Structure prediction request, 316 residues.
Amino acid sequence: MTQKIIIDTDPGVDDAFAILLAFKSPEVNVLGLTTVFGNVALDTTSLNGLILADMAPYKVPVFKGESQPMEFSTDSYAEFVHGDDGFGNINWPASNSKLEDQHAVDWMIETIKANPNEVTLVALGPLTNLGRLVERAPEVIPLVKEVVIMGGTVHCTGNVSPVAEANIHNDPHAAELVFAASWNVVMLGLDVTSQMILTPEMTARIGANGSKQGELLAKASKFYIDFYYDSIGIRGCYLHDPSTIVYLTHPELFKTETGSIISITEGFAIGQTTFSPEGRKFKMLDWEGRSQHKVCMQVEGEKVLQLVEERLSTYA
Ligand code: BDR
Ligand code: CA
Prediction:
Protein backbone atom coordinates (compact mmCIF):
# COMPACT_ATOMS: atom_id res chain seq x y z
CA MET A 1 0.00 0.00 0.00
CA THR A 2 1.24 3.48 -0.82
CA GLN A 3 2.49 5.31 2.25
CA LYS A 4 1.20 8.84 2.85
CA ILE A 5 4.07 11.14 3.68
CA ILE A 6 4.59 14.81 4.53
CA ILE A 7 8.10 16.05 3.77
CA ASP A 8 9.29 18.75 6.16
CA THR A 9 12.26 20.33 4.47
CA ASP A 10 14.83 23.15 4.09
CA PRO A 11 15.80 22.87 0.41
CA GLY A 12 18.81 22.62 0.16
CA VAL A 13 20.65 20.58 -2.48
CA ASP A 14 20.26 17.16 -0.85
CA ASP A 15 16.65 18.01 0.08
CA ALA A 16 16.03 18.48 -3.66
CA PHE A 17 17.44 15.00 -4.35
CA ALA A 18 15.22 13.53 -1.62
CA ILE A 19 12.04 15.26 -2.76
CA LEU A 20 12.50 14.42 -6.45
CA LEU A 21 13.31 10.84 -5.42
CA ALA A 22 10.07 10.68 -3.42
CA PHE A 23 8.08 11.85 -6.46
CA LYS A 24 9.59 8.94 -8.41
CA SER A 25 8.96 6.35 -5.69
CA PRO A 26 5.64 4.57 -6.23
CA GLU A 27 5.70 3.30 -2.63
CA VAL A 28 5.04 6.82 -1.29
CA ASN A 29 2.47 9.54 -1.91
CA VAL A 30 3.71 13.01 -0.97
CA LEU A 31 0.71 14.81 0.56
CA GLY A 32 2.60 18.08 0.76
CA LEU A 33 5.86 19.85 1.52
CA THR A 34 6.25 21.89 4.70
CA THR A 35 9.18 24.27 4.83
CA VAL A 36 11.48 25.37 7.60
CA PHE A 37 14.59 27.59 7.87
CA GLY A 38 17.88 25.73 7.82
CA ASN A 39 20.25 25.50 4.90
CA VAL A 40 19.08 28.99 3.90
CA ALA A 41 16.42 31.36 5.29
CA LEU A 42 12.76 30.32 5.29
CA ASP A 43 11.70 32.56 2.38
CA THR A 44 14.27 30.87 0.15
CA THR A 45 13.57 27.30 1.33
CA SER A 46 9.86 27.96 0.67
CA LEU A 47 10.43 29.28 -2.86
CA ASN A 48 12.68 26.29 -3.52
CA GLY A 49 9.89 24.04 -2.22
CA LEU A 50 7.62 25.49 -4.90
CA ILE A 51 10.21 24.88 -7.64
CA LEU A 52 10.42 21.22 -6.58
CA ALA A 53 6.66 20.77 -6.15
CA ASP A 54 6.16 22.04 -9.73
CA MET A 55 8.28 19.06 -10.84
CA ALA A 56 6.00 16.46 -9.22
CA PRO A 57 3.88 14.17 -11.40
CA TYR A 58 0.88 15.06 -9.20
CA LYS A 59 -0.28 18.12 -7.24
CA VAL A 60 1.87 18.75 -4.17
CA PRO A 61 0.95 21.80 -2.04
CA VAL A 62 3.69 23.73 -0.22
CA PHE A 63 3.14 25.21 3.27
CA LYS A 64 5.49 27.70 4.89
CA GLY A 65 6.56 26.88 8.42
CA GLU A 66 8.91 28.24 11.07
CA SER A 67 11.61 30.80 10.36
CA GLN A 68 13.47 30.60 13.67
CA PRO A 69 14.47 27.93 16.21
CA MET A 70 12.17 27.50 19.19
CA GLU A 71 14.30 29.03 21.94
CA PHE A 72 16.80 31.39 20.29
CA SER A 73 17.08 33.32 17.08
CA THR A 74 19.59 32.97 14.29
CA ASP A 75 20.61 34.56 11.02
CA SER A 76 23.32 32.03 10.36
CA TYR A 77 22.63 29.52 7.60
CA ALA A 78 24.66 27.13 5.44
CA GLU A 79 25.04 29.16 2.23
CA PHE A 80 28.67 28.02 2.10
CA VAL A 81 27.35 24.46 1.66
CA HIS A 82 24.20 25.00 -0.44
CA GLY A 83 24.79 28.41 -2.10
CA ASP A 84 22.91 31.67 -1.45
CA ASP A 85 19.91 30.31 -3.36
CA GLY A 86 20.00 26.94 -1.58
CA PHE A 87 20.54 25.27 -4.96
CA GLY A 88 24.26 25.91 -5.47
CA ASN A 89 23.95 29.40 -7.01
CA ILE A 90 22.50 28.21 -10.31
CA ASN A 91 20.06 31.05 -10.99
CA TRP A 92 17.18 28.62 -11.53
CA PRO A 93 13.95 30.40 -12.63
CA ALA A 94 11.46 31.07 -9.84
CA SER A 95 8.18 29.18 -9.72
CA ASN A 96 4.91 30.87 -10.70
CA SER A 97 3.05 28.72 -8.18
CA LYS A 98 1.90 30.10 -4.84
CA LEU A 99 2.47 28.95 -1.30
CA GLU A 100 -0.65 27.80 0.54
CA ASP A 101 -2.10 30.32 3.00
CA GLN A 102 -2.26 27.91 5.93
CA HIS A 103 0.74 27.64 8.29
CA ALA A 104 2.70 24.42 7.86
CA VAL A 105 2.14 23.25 11.44
CA ASP A 106 -1.64 23.86 11.30
CA TRP A 107 -1.86 21.92 8.04
CA MET A 108 0.19 19.03 9.46
CA ILE A 109 -2.09 18.81 12.50
CA GLU A 110 -5.23 18.90 10.33
CA THR A 111 -3.85 16.31 7.88
CA ILE A 112 -2.79 13.90 10.63
CA LYS A 113 -6.24 14.15 12.25
CA ALA A 114 -7.91 13.48 8.90
CA ASN A 115 -5.70 10.40 8.28
CA PRO A 116 -5.22 8.77 11.69
CA ASN A 117 -2.29 6.31 11.87
CA GLU A 118 -1.58 6.74 8.18
CA VAL A 119 0.76 9.71 7.87
CA THR A 120 4.54 9.45 8.09
CA LEU A 121 6.42 12.68 8.76
CA VAL A 122 9.75 12.82 6.94
CA ALA A 123 11.95 15.54 8.46
CA LEU A 124 14.88 16.76 6.37
CA GLY A 125 15.70 20.01 8.18
CA PRO A 126 15.75 21.46 11.70
CA LEU A 127 12.92 19.92 13.74
CA THR A 128 11.20 23.22 14.56
CA ASN A 129 7.89 22.55 12.78
CA LEU A 130 7.67 19.13 14.46
CA GLY A 131 8.59 20.63 17.83
CA ARG A 132 5.79 23.20 17.46
CA LEU A 133 3.39 20.40 16.53
CA VAL A 134 4.29 18.46 19.69
CA GLU A 135 3.88 21.61 21.79
CA ARG A 136 0.60 22.75 20.21
CA ALA A 137 -1.22 19.50 19.51
CA PRO A 138 0.01 16.65 21.73
CA GLU A 139 -3.26 14.83 20.93
CA VAL A 140 -2.01 14.09 17.38
CA ILE A 141 1.23 12.43 18.54
CA PRO A 142 -0.35 8.93 18.81
CA LEU A 143 -2.05 9.44 15.43
CA VAL A 144 1.23 9.77 13.49
CA LYS A 145 2.36 6.52 11.86
CA GLU A 146 6.08 7.22 11.99
CA VAL A 147 8.56 10.10 12.11
CA VAL A 148 11.61 9.51 9.92
CA ILE A 149 14.34 12.05 10.61
CA MET A 150 17.52 12.84 8.72
CA GLY A 151 19.63 14.12 11.55
CA GLY A 152 21.86 13.33 14.46
CA THR A 153 24.75 10.98 14.91
CA VAL A 154 25.58 8.33 17.50
CA HIS A 155 29.05 6.98 16.70
CA CYS A 156 30.19 9.31 13.91
CA THR A 157 31.89 12.67 14.26
CA GLY A 158 29.41 15.52 13.77
CA ASN A 159 29.34 17.96 10.88
CA VAL A 160 28.88 21.26 12.74
CA SER A 161 30.85 20.36 15.85
CA PRO A 162 32.75 17.22 16.81
CA VAL A 163 29.51 15.84 18.27
CA ALA A 164 26.58 17.58 16.52
CA GLU A 165 24.86 17.14 13.17
CA ALA A 166 23.45 20.27 11.48
CA ASN A 167 19.69 19.61 11.55
CA ILE A 168 19.69 18.82 15.27
CA HIS A 169 22.15 21.59 16.08
CA ASN A 170 19.99 24.16 14.26
CA ASP A 171 17.20 23.60 16.78
CA PRO A 172 18.27 21.28 19.61
CA HIS A 173 15.26 22.20 21.79
CA ALA A 174 12.80 21.19 19.08
CA ALA A 175 14.76 17.96 18.58
CA GLU A 176 14.51 17.22 22.29
CA LEU A 177 10.71 17.66 22.21
CA VAL A 178 10.53 15.30 19.24
CA PHE A 179 12.75 12.62 20.86
CA ALA A 180 10.89 12.86 24.17
CA ALA A 181 7.45 12.40 22.57
CA SER A 182 5.82 8.99 22.50
CA TRP A 183 5.65 8.35 18.78
CA ASN A 184 7.68 6.07 16.55
CA VAL A 185 10.84 7.91 15.55
CA VAL A 186 13.46 6.55 13.17
CA MET A 187 16.66 8.58 13.34
CA LEU A 188 18.74 8.28 10.23
CA GLY A 189 21.88 10.27 10.81
CA LEU A 190 25.54 10.54 9.89
CA ASP A 191 26.16 6.94 11.07
CA VAL A 192 24.62 5.79 7.79
CA THR A 193 24.49 8.85 5.52
CA SER A 194 28.25 9.36 5.67
CA GLN A 195 28.76 5.80 4.45
CA MET A 196 27.29 6.73 1.05
CA ILE A 197 28.94 9.07 -1.41
CA LEU A 198 27.08 10.31 -4.47
CA THR A 199 29.87 10.92 -6.99
CA PRO A 200 30.13 13.57 -9.74
CA GLU A 201 29.79 10.74 -12.27
CA MET A 202 26.45 9.70 -10.76
CA THR A 203 25.08 13.26 -10.74
CA ALA A 204 26.27 13.74 -14.33
CA ARG A 205 24.42 10.58 -15.38
CA ILE A 206 21.28 11.79 -13.56
CA GLY A 207 21.57 15.06 -15.52
CA ALA A 208 22.26 13.40 -18.85
CA ASN A 209 18.72 12.24 -19.65
CA GLY A 210 17.56 15.74 -20.60
CA SER A 211 14.83 16.13 -17.97
CA LYS A 212 14.48 19.43 -16.08
CA GLN A 213 14.63 17.50 -12.82
CA GLY A 214 17.94 15.89 -13.82
CA GLU A 215 19.27 19.24 -15.01
CA LEU A 216 18.42 20.90 -11.67
CA LEU A 217 20.06 18.11 -9.65
CA ALA A 218 23.19 17.93 -11.80
CA LYS A 219 23.66 21.71 -11.72
CA ALA A 220 22.81 22.15 -8.03
CA SER A 221 25.11 19.38 -6.88
CA LYS A 222 28.28 20.98 -8.36
CA PHE A 223 28.60 23.61 -5.60
CA TYR A 224 27.66 21.04 -2.94
CA ILE A 225 30.25 18.55 -4.18
CA ASP A 226 32.90 21.29 -4.29
CA PHE A 227 32.12 22.07 -0.65
CA TYR A 228 32.71 18.44 0.31
CA TYR A 229 36.00 18.35 -1.56
CA ASP A 230 37.23 21.60 -0.03
CA SER A 231 36.12 20.80 3.52
CA ILE A 232 36.79 17.08 3.94
CA GLY A 233 38.53 16.04 0.72
CA ILE A 234 35.99 13.56 -0.61
CA ARG A 235 35.00 13.36 -4.29
CA GLY A 236 31.24 13.58 -4.13
CA CYS A 237 28.65 14.36 -1.47
CA TYR A 238 27.15 12.37 1.35
CA LEU A 239 23.69 10.99 0.73
CA HIS A 240 21.94 12.67 3.67
CA ASP A 241 18.31 13.54 2.95
CA PRO A 242 17.55 11.03 0.15
CA SER A 243 18.36 8.17 2.55
CA THR A 244 15.09 8.78 4.40
CA ILE A 245 13.07 8.10 1.28
CA VAL A 246 15.01 4.90 0.57
CA TYR A 247 14.45 3.86 4.18
CA LEU A 248 10.69 4.13 3.56
CA THR A 249 10.73 2.32 0.24
CA HIS A 250 13.44 -0.28 0.98
CA PRO A 251 13.80 -0.64 4.78
CA GLU A 252 15.56 -4.00 4.31
CA LEU A 253 18.69 -2.09 3.22
CA PHE A 254 19.08 -0.58 6.72
CA LYS A 255 19.85 -2.07 10.16
CA THR A 256 18.45 -0.24 13.16
CA GLU A 257 19.03 -0.34 16.91
CA THR A 258 16.38 0.54 19.48
CA GLY A 259 16.85 2.90 22.40
CA SER A 260 16.18 6.35 23.80
CA ILE A 261 17.68 9.56 22.46
CA ILE A 262 18.35 12.85 24.21
CA SER A 263 19.21 16.02 22.29
CA ILE A 264 21.68 18.07 24.32
CA THR A 265 20.41 21.66 24.55
CA GLU A 266 23.34 23.57 26.08
CA GLY A 267 27.08 23.69 26.48
CA PHE A 268 29.89 22.39 24.28
CA ALA A 269 27.85 19.38 23.22
CA ILE A 270 24.76 21.36 22.15
CA GLY A 271 22.97 19.49 19.38
CA GLN A 272 24.52 16.12 20.23
CA THR A 273 22.17 13.13 20.00
CA THR A 274 23.02 10.79 22.84
CA PHE A 275 21.70 7.26 22.50
CA SER A 276 20.98 4.73 25.22
CA PRO A 277 20.49 1.19 23.85
CA GLU A 278 17.31 -0.57 24.99
CA GLY A 279 17.81 -2.72 28.11
CA ARG A 280 21.18 -1.21 29.06
CA LYS A 281 21.30 0.03 32.67
CA PHE A 282 23.31 3.08 33.68
CA LYS A 283 23.89 4.77 37.03
CA MET A 284 22.58 8.03 35.57
CA LEU A 285 18.84 7.59 35.13
CA ASP A 286 18.13 10.47 32.71
CA TRP A 287 17.60 8.14 29.72
CA GLU A 288 15.32 5.75 31.68
CA GLY A 289 11.60 5.68 30.97
CA ARG A 290 11.86 7.66 27.76
CA SER A 291 10.30 6.76 24.43
CA GLN A 292 12.12 4.01 22.59
CA HIS A 293 13.09 4.93 19.04
CA LYS A 294 15.01 3.35 16.19
CA VAL A 295 18.40 4.59 15.03
CA CYS A 296 19.86 3.46 11.71
CA MET A 297 23.35 2.14 12.35
CA GLN A 298 24.16 0.18 9.18
CA VAL A 299 23.25 0.45 5.53
CA GLU A 300 23.85 -1.44 2.30
CA GLY A 301 25.23 1.74 0.79
CA GLU A 302 26.01 0.56 -2.74
CA LYS A 303 22.45 -0.69 -3.21
CA VAL A 304 20.98 2.55 -1.89
CA LEU A 305 23.14 4.66 -4.21
CA GLN A 306 22.25 2.49 -7.18
CA LEU A 307 18.54 2.81 -6.43
CA VAL A 308 18.75 6.59 -6.05
CA GLU A 309 20.56 6.95 -9.38
CA GLU A 310 18.19 4.57 -11.17
CA ARG A 311 15.05 6.30 -9.96
CA LEU A 312 16.30 9.85 -10.54
CA SER A 313 17.30 8.87 -14.05
CA THR A 314 13.74 7.93 -14.98
CA TYR A 315 12.52 11.54 -15.26
CA ALA A 316 11.77 12.23 -18.89
C1 BDR B 1 21.65 17.88 6.88
O1 BDR B 1 21.92 19.28 7.01
C2 BDR B 1 21.57 19.95 5.84
O2 BDR B 1 22.63 20.72 5.39
C3 BDR B 1 21.26 18.91 4.80
O3 BDR B 1 20.24 19.35 3.92
C4 BDR B 1 20.86 17.72 5.59
O4 BDR B 1 19.48 17.74 5.88
C5 BDR B 1 22.95 17.12 6.92
O5 BDR B 1 23.60 17.30 8.14
CA1 CA C 1 17.95 19.20 4.62
Notes: The chain has one domain: 3-312.
